[in-house]
């Protein structure tokens, strides 16, 4: 419970005690009790006092007319405003303390509906003629912990900016149905919001579970693929080594097959006819020896002995002895 509300309830308790402990109280006693309760500097809630049988007895038709207005006055202090007092006839006059109290309570009600409040609107609602008087009232409300506000007299127009209001007004019985309807609508909206939040949470959980399942499936597939690769590599290792050794042996000492071929003229029974069919004047080979390398590439092409631009394998030729 708010501290200001607690203090106000404690300040009201002596008046509630007087109203409940007095048997067959006269209307004059009850009217004086109402005047004292509304004039007390710390009483801002009056609902508990209103509910006592002694106060409600003023509604009787036997109550003199001069005291009947006190019950209505107490109701205005409980949930009404200064404007309600001004608009209601046959109410008892207010003393200075009651005037200050009702204006403070009216300021609480205005602060919950309008913000910021202009000086002009507040002065009209509270029947205040001077801005200094209004500023004094707002300052008193701030120091009494009724509101938290800031005065802005230099703005155009001057305003009172209220940031918080103490829960010190009683609830009018006629407004209970409206409050119940408002709270019911608020409860429905809260239920809709909670349903949307729960649906979103369920959707997030489902998506997270789906992602985890996909990640697990990818992990299993990767491990299976890696295991198959390792098995295939182990089984094919021996054959690959043999195949590599066979390739190395074919190419001769270097293990590579090139474009050069080596021949020995003594290995053939017949002359290959090169010397008999050599071009005329081609004597440069006689002193070279029985074996020599002849590149049948571009060199022969320049000499007119091969096709231009073609490359042939190099052969080792020799003349039979």
Written overview of the protein:
Residues 232-259, 300-321 are annotated as: Disordered. This is PCI domain-containing protein. The protein is mostly helical and 321 residues long. The chain has three domains: 3-170, no CATH class; 174-226; 258-321, no CATH class. Helices cover 56% and strands 7% of the residues. The protein is built from twelve helices and five strands. The protein has helices at 3-21, 27-39, 47-50, 53-56, 65-79, 82-87, 96-113, 119-126, 131-143, 176-235, 237-250, 298-303, and strands at residues 117-118, 147-152, 159-165, 292-294, 315-317. Strands 1-3-2 form a three-stranded antiparallel sheet. Strands 4-5 form a two-stranded antiparallel ribbon. A hairpin with a 6-residue loop joins strand 2 and strand 3. Helix 1 (3-21) runs antiparallel to helix 2 (27-39), helix 2 runs parallel beside helix 5 (65-79) and helix 7 (96-113) crosses helix 9 (131-143). The longest helix is centred in the middle third of the chain and has 60 residues, at 176-235. It is elongated and about 120 Å long. Mean pLDDT is 80; it is low at 239-260 and 284-321.
């Amino acid at each position: 419970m708010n501290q200001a509300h607690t203090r106000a309830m404690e300040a009201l308790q002596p008046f509630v005690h007087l109203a409940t402990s007095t048997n067959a109280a006269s209307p004059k006693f009850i009217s004086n009790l109402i005047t004292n309760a509304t004039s007390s500097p710390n009483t801002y809630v009056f609902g508990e006092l209103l509910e006592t049988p002694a106060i409600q007895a003023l509604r009787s038709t036997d109550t003199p007319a001069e005291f009947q207005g006190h019950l209505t006055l107490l109701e205005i202090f409980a949930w009404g405003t200064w404007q309600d007092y001004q608009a209601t006839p046959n109410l008892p006059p207010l003393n200075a303390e009651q005037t200050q109290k009702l204006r403070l309570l009216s300021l609480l009600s205005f602060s919950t509906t309008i913000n910021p409040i202009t000086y002009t609107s507040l002065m009209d609602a509270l029947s205040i003629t001077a801005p200094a008087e209004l500023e004094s009232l707002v300052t008193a409300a701030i120091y009494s912990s009724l509101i938290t506000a800031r005065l802005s007299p230099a703005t155009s127009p001057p305003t009172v900016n209220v940031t918080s209001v103490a829960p010190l007004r009683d609830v009018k019985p006629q407004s209970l149905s409206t409050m119940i309807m408002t709270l019911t609508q608020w409860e429905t909206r809260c239920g809709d919001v909670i349903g949307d939040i729960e649906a979103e949470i369920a959707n997030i959980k489902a998506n997270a579970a789906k992602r985890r399942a996909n990640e697990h499936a990818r992990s299993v597939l990767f491990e299976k693929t890696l295991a198959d690769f390792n098995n295939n590599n182990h089984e094919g290792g021996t054959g690959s080594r043999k195949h590599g050794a066979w390739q190395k042996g074919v190419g001769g000492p270097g293990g590579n097959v090139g474009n050069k071929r080596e021949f020995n003229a003594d290995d053939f029974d017949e002359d290959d006819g090169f010397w008999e069919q050599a071009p005329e004047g081609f004597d440069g080979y006689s002193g070279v020896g029985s074996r020599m390398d002849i590149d049948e590439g571009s060199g022969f092409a320049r000499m007119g002995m091969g096709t231009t631009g073609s490359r042939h394998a190099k052969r080792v030729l020799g003349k039979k002895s």
